Amino acid sequence: MVRRFGLRSIIAGTMVVALFASACSPSATPSGGSNAATATPAAGASDAAIGPKVEVVFWQRQFEDYQQAWFKKQVAAFNAAHPAIEVKYTAVPGDAWDAKLKAAQAAGKVPDVLTTNYGAIKPGVVNGQFAKLDGLMKPEAFADIADNVKDFVRTKDGYFGYPMLVEPSTVLYYRKDLFTAAGLDPAKPPKNWDELIADARALTKGGVYGMNIAQTAPDLGWSSWGLQYNAAGHLPIADDWSAPRATDPAYTKLLQLYQTLYTEKLMPQEATFPYADASFYGQGKVAMSAGGSWEIGQLSADFKDTLANTAIAAFPSVDGDATKPTSTLGGWTLTIDAKSKVQQQAADFVSWLLAGDPAIMTDFFKAAGYSKYSPRASVAAALAADPDASRNPYLAIVSRDVLPYAKAEPAYPWDVSIAFGTAIEKAMKGGDIDAALAEADKAIADVITKQKLAGTAP
Amino acid sequence: MIAPMAILLSIFVIYPLAYALYLSMFEISFYRDPVFVGPQFYGYVLDSPRFWNAISIGLRLAVMVVPVMLVIAFLIASLIRTLGRRLAGFLKTTIYLPTVVSGVVASVVFTLMYRLDGGLVNGALGVVGIGPFAYLSSPDLALPAIAVPAIWLGIGVSSLIMLAGMLDIPESYFEAAELEGAGFLAQTRYVTIPLLRNILLFLFVTGFILAMQQVDLPLVMTGGGPVDSTMTPNLFIFTQFKDPTPYATSFSLTAALILFFVLGSVSALIFRLVRSEKAVDA
């Protein structure tokens, strides 16, 4: 019986492993995915080609509803204007994105065009994942990119992504009416972390928490990058990725900030909504909230009453120095897969959508409630001339107080970020701060060794 | 007669396993040629505190789920055995219902029930002055909170399998025991449990393995958090696999293989501890 049952267990388990293994089959050769079925690579603009339509598969990471509507509209417009190309558009939910993309890579059915965040470009280039765009798009397209964004999408070998937007990951939203009710001056938002905690204490009453900020390790892993810079002037790894730096005493104050907010119940005690979602704030459950600039768009679409009482400011700095970074400058690009057999047609689509007529992207930023920022000089100029944009108070504050000091997203593996995010979460849940930082330091050292990171920083 | 089985085993078991072991010797990239690294990733996985934490979480979840599930299922099956046909049919249908509910749906329902603000559980406990608790945000409470729906989902099938086993026990055994003055507890101890031993063993081992491999409940309810306190082995492997680096791909494949051997070893150990050979002949 032991042997019989043991054999059954082995068979069942082996089949699981086998399925996994088959999904992981290494394949360095270009795949013949369905997207290539009718493809005929062309060197020039493919809309002049004669013959069957070339299919370009485009996966967009799903964001706010208006974004899906905008992409759908623009894809339809592109397809109508380019009879030789058919862009097949799919919006993929964010929580399914990584698994779906990796499964597609394993199966050799990766989309031709996909949304990629800035931090993923350089690791992806090292992995050979993206097509070089220099020969596929006109040089003027790259000249139009703002200088401080060019390095986000290029390596010494060229451009591997075309930027769509930039958005700071952290600004402070606060309720003017609740500030007044608590005896605080709505014209004077907190400037440093001590003031932030004091204001949060004053605002926490009547079933409303004073503050909201990320509280789970996966959210903390990326949303705290700006504050990591703010606290210590660096991220928890050496600039050349050769050694961990998580035990820098400067991080103690950062973890104390999160710990105080959580353990004193000045913020929600469970993550009903993720960091990127403004619903806690929009529903009036918190008086202040840390969030990305994109939340302006969500508030203006779904929580108009709350927005009417909202002011925004740069997130407080550890010591009140407003020139220290408090945010990373995240955002999204479109990349073309290295294995795509329709790279030119895919690039034509990217050129038309992101690097073509500025009116197309101006339309996007208008739909976004001016909560995101253009990395293109021509689009920024068009927005500056737009009366609606120039009247938008939030746009002006973020442009003046946040964007100039924001840092680029780090390009190191996510394991480093999650190690530090876990340390913050442990401190929030009452753990010892020094022990949490020491554990993060050890974990990051382990990542450096096993993933051979030393000296590989881009 | 052996040939078909040998061929099928070769195609579906031996070759894939051998190929998986072969692949685990490479750092796998979907864009570049794989790099041979030998058994390096086995060392990486075995050296990973998060991997062993995940194994520990899986074991703790199994310890929370399996005994409670078996006891409740046994009591339900014992009750149904004594009922009339109609009522028994109704109860069997009722207890089987959770089994047809998908794990994802159950996860969403229990997440809503556990909510700090407006959750049913906190509301009920609040009536007697207990709580409220942030069940899914507390490293101490999150795993037990996940064990509850795991038990709920597993009770139906366990109860019906036990009931089938009980109905196979000749009624004369119970009648004889009754004539000897044995009550429910004595009948359970001297008749039911000994004659259900194979079934209990089967449910124990399969329940243990299923609990160790639980992934949908923690994935939906907590994402493995807070601070990895619900990061079961398969969820850990899945989380690693999603990472875009070649390192993560090879690490997750190797971790899956090691988990396979760990679960096989645990199963073998359980069989040895409960002396299953004797159980067959009982």
Could you explain how this protein is built, in words?
- The complex is a heterodimer of chains A (458) and B (282).
- Chain A is an alpha/beta fold.
- Chain A folds into two domains: 41-167 and 329-405, Periplasmic binding protein-like II (D-Maltodextrin-Binding Protein, domain 2), CATH 3.40.190.10; 171-326 and 412-450, Periplasmic binding protein-like II (D-Maltodextrin-Binding Protein, domain 2, 3-Layer(aba) Sandwich).
- Chain A is built from 21 helices and eleven strands.
- Chain A has helices spanning 2-23, 65-81, 94-107, 118-126, 139-143, 147-153, 176-181, 193-203, 217-223, 225-232, 250-263, 279-282, 295-302, 304-308, 343-354, 358-367, 377-384, 387-391, 393-402, 414-428, 433-450; strands at 54-61, 85-92, 113-117, 154-155, 158-159, 162-168, 171-175, 288-291, 310-313, 328-336, 407-408.
- Chain B is mainly alpha-helical.
- Chain B has a single domain (51-281), classed as MetI-like fold (Orthogonal Bundle).
- Chain B is 76% helix and 1% strand.
- Chain B has helices at 2-23, 40-46, 49-82, 85-100, 103-114, 120-127, 142-168, 171-179, 184-195, 197-212, 216-221, 233-242, 246-273, 276-281, and strands spanning 26-27, 35-36.
- Chain B is globular.
Helix-strand layout with pairing:
The complex is a heterodimer of chains A (458) and B (282).
Chain A lengths: L1 H22 L30 E8 L3 H17 L3 E8 L1 H14 L5 E5 H9 L12 H5 L3 H7 E2 L2 E2 L2 E7 L2 E5 H6 L11 H11 L13 H7 L1 H8 L17 H14 L15 H4 L5 E4 L3 H8 L1 H5 L1 E4 L14 E9 L6 H12 L3 H10 L9 H8 L2 H5 L1 H10 L4 E2 L5 H15 L4 H18 L8
Parallel strand pairs in A: 1-2, 1-3, 10-11
Antiparallel strand pairs in A: 3-10, 4-5, 6-10, 7-8, 7-9
Chain B lengths: L1 H22 L2 E2 L7 E2 L3 H7 L2 H34 L2 H16 L2 H12 L5 H8 L14 H27 L2 H9 L4 H12 L1 H16 L3 H6 L11 H10 L3 H28 L2 H6 L1
Antiparallel strand pairs in B: 1-2
Helix pairs in contact in B: 2-13, 3-7, 3-10, 3-12, 4-7, 5-7, 7-10, 10-13, 12-13
